[in-house]
Amino acid sequence: MKLFKKGAEADLYKTTWQNSKAILKIRKTKNYRDPSLDSRIRKHRTIKESQMISFVKSFGLPTPLIYFVNLKTTSILMQDIPGKPVHDLPELKIIELSKEIGKLVGLLHKNGVMHGDLTTSNFIFFQNTVFVIDFGLSQNTIKPEDHAVDLRLIKEILNSAHAKIMLSSWKNFLCGYKSVVGNAYYAKITKLVSDIESRGRYAKVV
Fold first, then answer.
1. Model pLDDT for residues 69-101, shown as the tens digit of each residue
2. With contact defined as beta carbons under 8 Å apart, do 173 and 154 qualify?
3. CATH assignment of 2-79, given 3.40.50.720, 3.30.200.20, 3.40.50.150, 2.60.120.200?
4. I need a labelling partner for 204 at 20 to 30 A (CA). Which of 37, 42, 46, 110 fits?
């Protein structure tokens, strides 16, 4: 088992499951919390994330398969998608795939799910399919304000990590998103994104 990513909430390890490559996500103990409270929180989040991945798969979202959930170690063993994060692809490919990413986010929102961590590193391109990963911050919500926060984050990521292609990628993302959620909801969400940007603590993304 090999550690390949350390996060604030969890560490990710490369491993195997029945001769298949797998990822083991282990939620870390937080020493500043009461031990019993910490255990309950980590168990709750482990259950919630595994349930969310199964739920979004039920309406057609490409996600890793869940192999095993261990509440004692607050870990999730899941399929390793051996593709590349969209973040690491050539710029022209990112622009192209932004439309598909917009469709996937639209599908999430249409089914009442906020991802909570929409970065180009959480979309994996493999065999002409874009997979969505890391549902650790996701939640069931139909609130347009929550969905607007999702869009604001991906817009900010495009602006900071992919500045040269931000406008083209964002345009394609919105096109894909609109094709799934429809004109009326699209207009509502993009208006809310503008409202969020107008607040003092957010920088305007051009």
1. 999 999 999 999 999 999 999 999 999 999 999
2. yes
3. 3.30.200.20
4. 110
